[in-house]
């Protein structure tokens, strides 16, 4: 876009004799160059900046069309904009910008019609509107399908198939967010179902699976859906935003008591479970593996001391 704007600026200044158009296109070239440098530095452009850029781009194109009195072929540039809107900003803003662009261009064509004394035919309005709407619908449909597929892929990548809890990959992603310097203090807890093998051996794996599903729902209710992760088997990890280690320990012990107090009721069997939990603070500079190792050690100490308890350090 930077090179295209610069090239068009040169053409309008030297060949077409339109200095104001050339200035507007030169400004877009500089804006594009600035975004390119920002992208190299930050790897991502904030949404408000992208929105401003697309609004400026649209305004420049509309201005060129007005100066050129909607010369044949010029409106083709506008028809490509819904595609750019949706690819750059997604479904919501793509729809909003496309709607305003269509309405704005109809107003522009009306102004040109008045200024030129009716030089534009009804066919100009109809052809542009029809072409624009078709591209708009295609862009909207494509982005909707893309978002749906992306959500399904994210669910497969980050969610445990049996329980619906987040998995280890999601834990790594969440930990990377919490480890940022501006994030509040966080704590990590590892929970294990006591004597889970006995449940499977006594009641069967179907009941064992139901226990894990029921436990996940309880943990998500108390800790939040995005803070509960299944590490494997009957072992779960929770990330806690608490003010102190004491408050994190108290929260885990309250959950432990509620799990013990409410057994799983099935059509065929009633299963009571207890859990052991290890809790540690994610200190500055801690890696995820270090945090898991400390919490895991505390968990097995809790089991060695008789299970159904919380240990913290």
Automatic annotation (TrEMBL):
Q: Which Gene3D superfamilies does the annotation name?
A: 3.30.70.270
Gene Ontology biological process terms, A to Z: cell adhesion involved in single-species biofilm formation; negative regulation of bacterial-type flagellum-dependent cell motility
Enumerate the spans annotated as GGDEF domain: 184-313
* Enzyme Commission (EC) number: 2.7.7.65
- Keywords tagged on the record: Membrane, Transmembrane, Transmembrane helix
Q: Name one Pfam family in it.
A: MASE6
Q: What is this protein called?
A: diguanylate cyclase
UniProt source species: Ferrimonas aestuarii
């Amino acid at each position: 876009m930077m090179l295209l704007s610069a090239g068009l600026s040169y053409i309008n200044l030297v060949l077409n004799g339109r200095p104001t158009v050339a200035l507007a296109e030169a400004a877009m070239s500089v804006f594009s160059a600035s975004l390119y440098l920002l992208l190299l530095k930050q790897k991502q452009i904030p949404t408000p900046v992208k929105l401003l850029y697309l609004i400026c781009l649209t305004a420049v194109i509309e201005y060129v069309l007005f100066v050129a009195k909607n010369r044949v072929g010029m409106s083709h540039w506008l028809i490509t904009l819904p595609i750019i809107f949706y690819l750059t900003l997604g479904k919501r803003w793509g729809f909003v910008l496309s709607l305003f662009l269509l309405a704005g261009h109809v107003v522009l064509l009306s102004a040109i019609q008045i200024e030129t004394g009716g030089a534009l035919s009804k066919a100009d309005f109809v052809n542009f509107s029809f072409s624009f709407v078709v591209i708009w619908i295609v862009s909207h449909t494509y982005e909707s399908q893309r978002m749906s597929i992306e959500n399904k892929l994210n669910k497969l990548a980050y969610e445990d198939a049996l329980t619906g809890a987040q998995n280890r990959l999601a834990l790594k992603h969440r930990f990377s967010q919490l480890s940022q310097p501006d994030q509040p203090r966080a704590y990590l807890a590892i929970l294990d179902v006591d004597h889970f093998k006995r449940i499977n051996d006594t009641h069967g794996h179907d009941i064992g699976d139901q226990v894990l599903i029921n436990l996940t729902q309880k943990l998500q209710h108390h800790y939040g859906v995005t803070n509960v992760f299944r590490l494997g088997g009957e072992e779960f990890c929770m990330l806690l935003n608490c003010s102190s280690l004491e408050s994190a320990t108290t929260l885990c012990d309250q959950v432990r008591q509620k799990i013990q107090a409410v057994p799983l009721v099935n059509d065929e069997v009633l299963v009571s479970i207890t859990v052991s939990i290890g809790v540690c603070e994610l200190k500055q500079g801690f890696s995820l593996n270090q945090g898991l190792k400390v919490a895991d050690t505390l968990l097995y100490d809790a089991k060695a001391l008789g299970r159904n308890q919380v240990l913290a350090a």
